[in-house]
Amino acid sequence: MATSADTPQGRRRERVATRLREALAVLRADPESEISVAALARHAGIGRNALYTNHRAVLEDLRALQAERSPASGQDEVPKLDGGKGEAEVRIRVLATENASLLRRALIAESRAKRLEERNADLVRELRDRRNVAMLPIAPPNASEE
Length: 146
Hints:
Blueprint: H1 8-29, H2 37-44, H3 48-54, H4 56-69, H5 85-131
Helix pairs in contact: 1-2, 1-4
């Protein structure tokens, strides 16, 4: 029975796994480095899709490293003196801007729908008028034409 390393795809997967393990070691050694899937994929020179699809074990190791580096439930946080009002105001402004743009898009869509409904009604009316058969009066034959 052939192992996965016997096929070209298997050999490629093994080479990529080796590069991923080396990149993970580099990230682990540097305490200032960003610990993310994108950073790991960038260091290994592969796409994130390949990492998510074929290298789940390395992904689990990365998650463990992220858990090691994360601060322990806010122990190191310095309390903010303003109570977070500045961040809240910024967030409110961002949400208001987003809401305004969504409202504008909705109004544009509604006006476009109204115009299209009116155009559709005009076309239906025109089609109905063209389907009506107009009866032309038949003139009695003139004696002068014979």
